[in-house]
Design brief:
Elements lengths: L36 E5 L3 H7 L4 H22 L3 E8 L7 H24 L2 E6 L7 H14 L5 E9 L1 H17 L10 H5 L12 E4 L18 E4 L9 H12 L20
This protein binds 3-methylbut-3-enyl trihydrogen diphosphate (IPE) (2 copies) and magnesium ion.
Function: Catalyzes the condensation of isopentenyl diphosphate (IPP) with allylic pyrophosphates generating different type of terpenoids.
Subunit structure: Homodimer.
Family: Belongs to the UPP synthase family.
Length: 274
């Protein structure tokens, strides 16, 4: 059993993120054009490894480096919320050695970066089923959540053992209990009530969904939250992705016109564009 970790007060001024080694700086995007919540399907590690004649785990290691850079780049550009698809409910079908390798790498990423992320004001959350992760990873993820609970510069949702259908099933189960015990009147339910049972009920809907690695599919990711997301598909394999690709996707987003089913442009959060 791991001991509860006290949320540590972080310094009043968050540490700035380290710059990209190329010296590239974040483009300036006017605040009203910034997506609030970007989600990334980090795909292509296996193909990257194959193209280098290496084992798939080498690809996942390269993917970890990309993830760390993208988190810094998200802080640098002023993003508020970032969801990262790290491991799906379907990925358990992979060979055990690959699954164990992915869990070990995620554990290492957290161990090596969590203190710096905390100083940068990053809040880490875990979206997914909590019962099947290796105990050491579960402890590391939950400690990261506890440590960073009060941070507000950037929220990073680590989607591990995440599947949208499982998330919806878990939500419906909990809602059914509330109906059965009389806490909820089924006739009075509205969409927002169902959203309240999801893993991260207080996170914004996804404005921009990026998938790397060239495939153009959703793979059971955030089906509810991405209902009106703008989609950007990148051919770059995840180990070759870095913050500059994230910034480019965000710039692409700024010129999209979102209408949410109406005829006029609507900004995220529901306000009409001026
Ligand atoms: C994404 O890369 C990482 C996970 C799904 C964990 P893949 O391992 O799916 O890489 P490809 O799609 O086989 O290239
Ligand atoms: C989606 O990628 C899951 C993650 C990136 C964690 P997959 O590689 O598992 O998706 P499919 O199998 O190509 O749809
Ligand atoms: Mg894949």
């Amino acid at each position: 059993m791991s001991l509860p970790v006290e949320p540590m007060p972080r310094p009043r001024r968050p540490l700035p993120p380290p710059a990209h080694p190329s010296g590239a700086r974040a483009p300036r995007i006017p605040e009203r054009r910034l997506p609030r919540h970007v989600a990334i399907i980090m795909d292509g590690n296996g193909r990257w490894a194959a193209s280098h004649g290496a084992a798939r785990t080498r690809g996942h290691r390269g993917g970890s480096r990309a993830t760390v850079d993208v988190v810094d780049g998200a802080v640098e550009i002023g993003l508020a919320q970032l969801s990262l698809y790290a491991f799906s409910t379907e990925n358990w079908a992979r060979p055990a050695a690959e699954v164990d390798g992915i869990m070990l790498l995620l554990h290492e990423v957290l161990r090596d970066n969590i203190e710096r992320w905390h100083e940068q004001g990053i809040r880490v959350r875990w979206s997914g089923r909590r019962t099947r992760a290796a105990p050491a990873l579960r402890a590391e993820l939950e400690a990261a959540e506890d440590l960073t609970r009060h941070n507000d510069v950037l929220t990073v949702a680590v989607c591990f053992d995440y599947g949208s259908r499982t998330e919806l099933l878990d939500a419906v189960r909990r809602m059914a209990v509330d109906v059965a015990t009389g806490r909820v009147d089924p006739a009075a339910l509205v969409e927002q009530d169902l959203a309240g049972y999801l893993y991260q009920p207080d996170m914004a809907e996804i404005d921009l969904l990026v998938r790397t690695g060239g495939e153009q599919r959703i793979s059971n990711f955030q089906l509810w939250q991405a209902a009106y997301a703008e989609l950007v598909f990148e051919d770059t394999l995840w180990p070759e992705f870095d913050r500059r690709h994230l910034w480019r996707a965000m710039q692409t987003y700024t010129v999209r016109q979102r209408r949410f089913g109406g005829t006029a442009e609507v900004m995220p959060g529901g306000t009409a564009a001026s």
